[in-house]
Structure formats: C-alpha cells, structure tokens
Amino acid sequence: MKTYFLGLVLVLSFSQCQSQTISSMSDFKPEISKNETQWKQELGPEKFRILRQKGTEYPGTGEYDKHFETGTYSCAGCGANLFTSDSKFDAHCGWPSFDKEIIDGAITEIRDFSAGMVRTEILCTKCGGHLGHVFNDGPTKTKLRYCVNSLSMTFERKK
Fold first, then answer.
1. DSSP class of 2
2. Does the annotation mark 78 as catalytic?
3. pLDDT confidence of residue 11
C-alpha cells in the first residue's frame, strides 16, 4: 500500500512540460464549442469516438504510427497545429509518439483516473478533442512521450 501511494504521489506531482494542466474537465473551456450532433456530422463515427468520446485505436493500426515524413501534425477536429515531425520518435508502443508540443499551450493536460489507472490525458487546447495521453518515460531529453491516436490528427507534409 505504501509503494502504491508513493507511486501515485509521484505521478500526480510530475509536471515537467509547459502544457496547460487542469484538474477537471469542468475547469476547461476550449475556444471552439459545438454540440454532439455537430461534432458527429463533421468528424464521422471513428474520429468522433476518438476525439469526443475519449476512445483509442488498437496499437499498431494508426496511419501515423510508423510515419516519419517531414511536416506538421494538426488536430483532426479543428486544424490546430499540435506537433512537428522533429519531435516524433518511435516508442515501439503502437501509437505515434512525440516528445513536445509544437508551441507551449497547444496541448491541455488533465488527470485521468479511468480504466483503473492514473494517467495524464492530453486534449487539443483549441477544441478540447481527446488526443491520447502523455507519460514521463520518453527517451529524449524532455523525458516525455505524448502517445497520440492517429485518428485525432492530420498531417501536412513540409514542402
């Protein structure tokens, strides 16, 4: 029990990144606000499930997992820039992984206690779309691993 509590304290106190961190969804007010019907019509069923219902893709199935072209990854819900290919790395986890957001504040973090775990969910700050989770086990100097669903992003190749 003591080990579990210490681990929980460490996870909850970790805050090395510059992302906006909020304690609950009620504290978060994205710039873009649409009702469920509007989001369903614009996104389609699978992107809606990921971005608005906090779903996830099966590991290794996403379009951008093994994708390493040069360019920018943006939110599939609103088009906000999220990550660059310079921050992408292969974490061998089955989802696209990045070590930093494109600019401070592009990503909002919220504590996630679902599925019997303590994690940090990442959301698009502009529209509130669920992107995935961030972990502090990354191999780069930031020590971060933004683990992102491919369906929550689009990609624009650098010309």
1. H
2. no
3. 39
Count of positions (residues) in the chain: 159
Mean pLDDT of successive 10-residue stretches along the chain, which has 159 residues: 41 44 67 92 97 96 96 98 97 96 95 88 96 96 97 96
Reported pTM: 0.83
Question: What pLDDT is stored for residue 10 in this prediction?
Answer: 38
Q: What is the mean pLDDT of the chain?
A: 87
- d(CA 131, CA 159) in angstroms, rounded, equals 26
What are the sequence ranges of the domains in the chain? Answer: 2-157
| Distance, C-alpha 36 to centroid of its chain | 20
User: What tokens does 70 get?
Assistant: 């040069």
CA distance 16 to 36: 33
Beta-bridged to residue 137, according to DSSP, are none
Task: Quickly list DSSP for 132-148.
Answer: EEEES--SSTT--EEEE
Could you identify the residue written with the tokens 């996630």?
112
| CATH classification for the domain delimited by 2-157, as one of 2.170.150.20, 3.40.50.970, 3.40.640.10, 3.90.550.10 | 2.170.150.20
Phi and psi angles of residue 22, each rounded to the nearest 5 degrees, phi first: -120, 160
- Asked whether the beta carbons of 107 and 65 are under 8 A apart, the reply is no
Q: Residue 151: which of 39, 56, 78 has the closest Cα?
A: 56
